[in-house]
Amino acid sequence: MPAAGIPIGAGNKEYPGNLTPFVTITCVVAAMGGLIFGYDIGISGGVTSMNPFLEKFFPAVYRKKNAQHSKNQYCQYDSETLTLFTSSLYLAALLSSVVASTITRRFGRKLSMLFGGLLFLVGALINGLAQNVAMLIVGRILLGFGIGFANQSVPLYLSEMAPYKYRGALNIGFQLSITIGILVANILNYFFAKIKGGWGWRLSLGGAMVPALIITIGSLILPDTPNSMIERGDRDGAKAQLKRIRGVEDVDEEFNDLVAASETSMQVENPWRNLLQRKYRPQLTMAVLIPFFQQFTGINVIMFYAPVLFNSIGFKDDASLMSAVITGVVNVVATCVSIYGVDKWGRRALFLEGGVQMLICQVAVAVSIAAKFGTSGEPGDLPKWYAIVVVLFICIYVAGFAWSWGPLGWLVPSEIFPLEIRSAAQSVNVSVNMLFTFLVAQIFLTMLCHMKFGLFLFFAFFVVVMTIYIYTMLPETKGIPIEEMDRVWKSHPYWSRFVEHDDNGVEMAKGGVKNV
Ligand code: BGC
């Protein structure tokens, strides 16, 4: 999520302004962009475990899944086209977020949101009406383009609209709306799967039109951000807008800083080359490693494929979808814990605790699946206690993610980039995230087939690595104003060697959020 969670001017200045009803409603509407992203994450797993859907589009998978003689639970879903269906969206999102960054900068955030909403709408329609695999994948690519546009513009919009004191909470608010989207999708899948005639999957996929319509209409009625208006030359309009959203007349200081930020960012000719300078090595490293690690927690194995996974380890179809609903609820509730605790306990404490919690659960799940199926994957009757234990551990794992790597994977990068590299660094962060989301989605079913229960140990290994990395390499950023963020690197045993020891970064950073 670009540039949210950043207290502009905090520390040495206080901009007047309130959390006005106007800005609250505006931000709630804009945050619906997260809802759509979440809906997409949640819907595909449930749909790909529905028999009528499989029978129509992936008959080979359907036969394998239901064959009397199919003995290998781990491999029943292994299919290239089935994975392509899920993962094509993320590749499309990766590509379009690059294009969207130019549109967002030149024509404003609202236009990108509008494009996002419209592409979603068409993608959902095509998917709901799909007659063949090609239609399915084309629809999904359009949804992916929509996500690229929305994820580029919505968080930026939120961070520019929010008063700085509430920017952190709003940042995780976007993640919260992602988790609500996932949950809604899981609940709908559960009910739509029961529809007689087997066409419920059409409602699941076509249902994405509802959040798409909300964001499309929202983008038409939402006001422009002052930052975007300044960037496009309308300073008078921007000042009037700032007064309106802050609910006070005295906005000069913030306004002047926004103008200064815009001028500074325009002076940087090549933000990409800038980013490669030695002094930005800590930020560049974090912009790559944090999203990489976030995806290698293995969370999307659960988010995309929970019903498929539960089905693979012996749950009946209905119980699989229900279990996905349960993990969805845990995801939402645990994200709220993070909103509550992130500025109290700090980022490192959440990262470390979440890491240990995820690790224990991954090992426990691996052991229980191994005990049940061994390496042959032969199914048997599933005792109730066993099912409960597996779901319980998966829930504790999801909770660990939802208050650590979930929100912090977006929050921490956004608060450590100084103004002059924020645009480029944030693009790196988003692209790396989408790339590894794509990769995990693409290889998961094959990995489950070949690595069996070892898949959970594979991700557990990465959780160990990332937890050690956070412990040794990530300084605490809680309560540190962005202008002073460079001091965390200067006092770090390793990163200090890359950072210059003069203090000119303070001047550079004081303008506020740069337009990405
Ligand atoms: C991640 C997504 C994930 C979601 C789960 C987000 O922070 O970027 O990949 O599916 O959290 O809640």
Describe the structure.
By secondary structure, the chain is mainly alpha-helical. It has one domain: Up-down Bundle (Growth Hormone, Chain: A), CATH 1.20.1250. Helix 1 packs parallel to helix 7 and helix 2 crosses helix 3. It is globular, with a radius of gyration of 23 Å. The N and C termini lie close together (11 Å). It binds beta-D-glucopyranose. The site of beta-D-glucopyranose has 14 residues, from helix 7, helix 15, helix 19 and helix 20.
Offer a few descriptive terms.
single chain; 516 residues; mainly alpha; Growth Hormone, Chain: A; disordered N terminus; disordered C terminus; binds beta-D-glucopyranose; membrane; transmembrane helix; Sugar_transporter_CS; symport; transport
Cα(first) to Cα(last) distance is: 11 Å
Low-confidence stretches: 1-12, 503-516
Estimate percent helicity: over 70%
Number of strands: 0
Order of helices and strands: HHHHHHHHHHHHHHHHHHHHHHH
Secondary structure tally, helices: 23
On the 0-100 scale, what is the average pLDDT? 82
